[in-house]
């Protein structure tokens, strides 16, 4: 079976994990956590970068940082992972979904303003497949209406919008290092990116269970105490050690994925020209990271037949999100602003093909052949 995903592994991870184990400090903010923090601050040119146990935790921290209150409204696409919404629902907010663009599967920036009310607190753009949302428009709307922008850049490490890294354009960004992402910290993991300096100190406090322990460690206070709400948002240094092994090879991983992505794209141009499938669209202002390669087929029935056919060929291919507004929880805690013209329809046509670091050329050729055979 050709798997849909395999955990990225470069060879140095076990060395660093063992070093962290022997250091006698496995709890948060050890040697490797600090190395990762420094790397991301330099790479992203942000005010602060803080590792978290998951991207879910990073989003939950963001919701606390912007002081989300019951009754606040948060605008986001319905075509996203449940954590995007849950982070704000946990603070009592109401989720306002906006339809997506069919070309990028990102939130339609031209529909956001109609969803803004006097209760709106933030816009949460989700950079689907590592392809940036139209951030100039979103940031201009946020400025006009005095809203926060929280970037869900879970899939966006090493992707750019007009030359700027995703996760650094809004007030706060959130990355994922889950097992399915381009880079992992050992199965789970995330990163909170602080771009608005007013959140820097409070982010450290919230991450340390609501205490000023970080200031105590730096020597700026002589004892630490409980000063705010918070939780245990620190990952183990083992997670950071695994991630450090990935960051050392980030360019190699990125180029390998881009090469596999391009091989798919080139192989399926004929299907696109014959109007049998649609291929991913990368706007000119965007630089993507080959997080995923997907095809969009004509309809749900054809997609299901295609997935079953690939399975019969020993190939795992999968669809993606079921739109949140159509779920039981989404019906209760959200409102869809305007018409669902594309969210459901496009989600039912999309299928993701195997793509990961270490994807053998021979295996990819088998996927390509099976796909072409299906459409022939």
Short descriptors:
8-stranded mixed β-sheet; 2 domains; 376 residues; 14 helices; Aspartate Aminotransferase, domain 2; Aspartate Aminotransferase, domain 1; 3-stranded antiparallel β-sheet; alpha/beta
* Mean pLDDT across every amino acid position: 96
What is the CATH C-level name of the largest domain?
Alpha Beta
Written as H for each helix and E for each strand, in order along the chain, the element string is HHEHEHEEHEEEEEHHHHHEEHHEHEH
CATH superfamily of the largest domain: Type I PLP-dependent aspartate aminotransferase-like (Major domain)
Question: Number of domains in the coordinates?
Answer: 2
- Percent helix among the residues? 25-40%
Q: Indicate the overall shape.
A: globular
Describe the sheet with the most strands: 8 strands, mixed
CATH fold-level topology of the largest domain: Aspartate Aminotransferase, domain 2
Can you tell me the residue ranges where pLDDT is under 50 for at least 5 consecutive residues?
none
Number-wise, the strands total: 13
For the CA atoms, what is the radius of gyration? 21 Å
Helix/strand-derived category reads alpha/beta
Biggest sheet strand order reads 1-9-8-5-4-2-3-12
Distance between the ends: 23 Å
Name the CATH architecture of the largest domain.
Answer: 3-Layer(aba) Sandwich
What is the beta-strand fraction? 5-15%
Helix tally equals 14
